Amino acid sequence: MLLRCLLPVALAAAACLDFAAPAAACPGCGPPSGQTLTTEVSQADFILYGTLDNAKPDPKEPGSSKGSTDMVIDAVVKGHALVKDKKVFTIPRYVPPDQKPSKYMVFFNVVNGDVDPYRGVIVGTDSKLPEYVKGALAVKGKDAVARLRYFFDYLESPEIEISGDAYNEFAVAEYKEVAELAPKLPTDTLLKWLRDPSTRASRFGLYGLLLGHAPKDRPALAGEVRKLLDAPDGKFSSGLDGLLMGYLLLDPKAGYEYLMKLVADPSKEFLVKHSGLKTLRFFWEYRPDVLTRKQILDGMTALVTHADLADMPIDDLRKWKAWEMTGEVLKYADKESHNTLPINNRAILKFALAASWADPKNAAATAHVEKVRKDNPERVKLMEELLKDDMKLTPQPPEPPKK
Q1: Would you give the DSSP letter of residue 80?
Q2: Which of 106, 68, 76, 72 has the alpha carbon at shortest distance from 87?
Q3: pLDDT in tens, 82-102
Q4: CB-count burial class (<10 Å; 0-12, 13-18, 19+) for 285
Q5: String of b and e for 150-162 (b: at least 16 CB within 10 Å)?
Q6: pTM of whole model > 0.85?
Q7: Cα 313 from chain centre
Q8: Cβ distance 266 to 305 under 8 Å?
Q9: Computed over its alpha carbons, how large is the radius of gyration of the chain?
């Protein structure tokens, strides 16, 4: 998305980055790139779409953004008394003319009577952005399924501003909302996007997850996903977690066998193994009806063998209170491949501390803590403080029921 902050240069960077992107809520999705347009529209006092003209810099401060620029209004995306019945609105900023014809969508706030054009989106002259934003506002008050169904149709829009925002809407959606919509989506469209070499890699995870909820033709769809996973070009590595989720949902038996081979293979690169980890997290936190507790823990056992990411599954096991894994975790405390990495030592110690607190009769966990305390009491004290804070701040995922 090409953005320009219509603000003084000294404030431009801060103004463009005045919010933190929320964490991804939809499993299989990447993190959203900032706020959704629907959220931004609700925060703006008014929004105009049109052409910029008659830009005049302030002669007293050349090179600054001081001055004025006229906006010839094509559409009022969000109205305000200040622009009622106006065809041209003067922006109190100097915006240098573009080299090629462009349209702008400008977001305004009114602060103590002063107009602040705090964000501008530059698009082509034939952009569908105003229509898209108006449609997004029209479904804002509707239920999650209706809203997401509107954005689904724009996920592969040729306009990056539109497709990016549509993806953001899915990225911030809760899994239960995505799962409710997914069975109603056209599977042929999802397969077409997954097969299309021009589809952005960042979308594969979402499309794979959505396909996994198809209500019919599930064996055939599982076979199609398997073909994509086995493709020799490996183009799905960036969205592998979502494809794995979809494959397991469509065919739990074949999908689990595939997943276990992947997480047990030491030759796989870090990102591939990490995708396996995210897949196991998904089934623990959201779909314990698909995989048993033992199946998930067996997958975590395989992941702990890899020193380059062992700290992650160990931390997950601690948060999941899987104290039956104590022996499996502690055996890596003395393995050179693992204990030469401080991050692994820290994860193992935190697991042992938590396990000993949860069950004082856990002799193995208690023994490991005391061994480390004898060699480095300050380290244990620090980990105890960190763990107390972590236990307060980390939400505990629901424990899957045993089958």
Answers
A1: -
A2: 72
A3: 999 999 999 988 988 877 788
A4: middle
A5: bbbebbbbebebb
A6: no
A7: 20
A8: yes
A9: 26
